[in-house]
Amino acid sequence: MDYISELAALLLEISTEESQSQAVRDKTADQMADTHDLRPEGPSVPEGNVWSVGDLNAEIGSVLDAAQDRLPSYVVGEISDINRYDFGTFFDLRDLDDDATISCIMWAHQREAVTHELEEGTETIVRATVDFYHDDGRTQLAVKNFWPVGESDRSEDLAALRAELAEDGLLDETAKQPLPEYPRHIGVVTSLSGSARRDFEEAVRARNPGVPITVCGATVQGEAAVASLVTAVRRLEQDSAIDVIVVTRGGGADADLWCFNEEPVVRAIADCATPTVVAVGHEDDETLAEAVADHRPMTPTDAGVAVAPDLASVRQRVADIEHRVDRAYTSVVTDRVATLTQRLDAGLQTLEQRAQAREATRQRTADLEHRITVAYEALVTSRLTAIETQLNDAYQALEHAVETDAVTVGAAQRRVGGLESRIDTAYQTRVDRELGALEARIEDGYREIETDARVQAGQSEARRLRVAVIVLLVVLGLTLLVLAVGVL
Length: 488
Fold this sequence. Notes:
The chain is α/β, with parallel strands linked by helices and 488 residues long. The protein has 13 helices and nine strands. Mean pLDDT is 79; it is low at 1-21 and 31-43.
């Protein structure tokens, strides 16, 4: 209760001091208008009525210094746009009833002495003095202490909408769509006159000059911003050629960015089937439009970097891949050629060994054939010589018998007939025996040739030997026949 009473007393004191300070400000303004009219009318301007910027800032500073005892020591408003640094904290204090704001600073040593937190959207009473900076004509509050009173209606509405979006699953990171790796057409919602458009386009052109960009102009702050942003987003969403939508602006105070927390804008972005990027250039707090977007960069330049692939790095990656493929291909081909060469060498060596084996077999067959031919010729020659000798001996004996028994033809004929019969019988018997033995030896030799060579040539040669023997037998028979006829 003591704390509430103290706050009520402070508010009453602030209200009284504000009324007094407003009267002082009005009186001061009237005096300045009478003594220093800076809006001369007509072509001629008195020399004493033209001030420099430095003179004007010095006069304003003097007036404010003189009026410090009449200015309020306590100011109430909503905290927004907090920026923390090592030396101190900057923030804005916004009026609870309209969008009027004033900049504030609280130095680090004063901030450390305060136990309660300085939070966005909190209704707060600050104890401060009014400081005027001569160089840039800037007025701000130098805060020495502050006391949170409660959250404003706007902050409560924001928290309620955030909770509703979370319940609908629109803040779930797993529901975010991936951005196209190589967009064919980029749509941009931003102010046509702001620097955000130029920054975004320069970032995209630096990375991917060929991608087309469609800019849909919209108001990005103020009362008309909500309808303008919703219309622009829906227009780009209906364009089937666009495969990524970027909503961006160049930052600003919380009051300037509040349109990106309005439900129609947030719902329009969340309902897009096309991947969305929202970058409003505000690093400290995330707007609801950024929260429901598929991707949130900080600035328009960052948005351009996010949606446009760097063609230089893509070309380098392609070149690296080509180099790796070439090296892998060369390695594979080299290994394959080496393997095939080894297999060909092994196959060639095997064929050479088989050819050498065949040549050795052929040589052995030729040697056996020569040996058989020589043996056969020697055997036949010796046998024919023996037969010829026997025939000569028989013929000589026959001639001797003919000469001896020439007395009687009948006796001779009988003897010759008997001798012929004996010779025929003996010859037939011996020839049959010799030919049988010869044929047996020839058969043994043929089987030996057939076993050693195991080739077709041995069989052919054996047939030739048989034919030769038959021919010799025929010749021998004819010879004996001729001899017998000659004897008769």
